[in-house]
Amino acid sequence: MTTYQYCTPEWLEESAKVFRSNPEAQQKLKKLTADMAYRVKADPAFGIDQDILFCAYFDAGKLNKLELIAEETAKTESEYIMTATPTTWKKVLNKEKKFLTEFLLGKIKLEKGSKVGVLGVAPHANNIVDSLTPFDLEFGDDLSGDEKGKYRAYMEEFRKELGV
Length: 164
Description:
The longest helix is centred in the C-terminal third of the chain and has 18 residues, at 145-162. The protein is α/β, with parallel strands linked by helices. It has 8 helices and 7 strands. Helix content is 44%, strand content 23%. The protein has helices at residues 9-20, 23-28, 71-77, 86-93, 99-104, 115-121, 125-132, 145-162; strands spanning 3-5, 34-40, 52-59, 62-69, 80-84, 109-112, 136-138.
């Protein structure tokens, strides 16, 4: 099975391809229409030196956008912006913790949007997580010092290129 590094363009591009080619996954999210952005807080232990955002925009289960985005894009285009540490997102994506539980405990904070609206999206969280993890993810805290240095350099490179 292929492994992708967390918070990289390749991870999101491949996740989008897999989701769009899977009618069953789309069917599971047919009642979801929401433009959501996810902020991953900076954490040097994960090789993330400054916050990074990605989005998942759905319209009746159709995935319109799944990519890294700039701060201003998130603020203007996203209905919701949810923020957490890489550790929290890792636990959710690895299915060690549930999105709703982490949200209600305040580990995932709502930066933009209504709490009631997020609670309406929450029943779809497991299916969204499945769409982001159709393969193994490698997180920065799993990397050796040398690998983490390469990850940091790559992140700096693609962030400049993409303006994120």
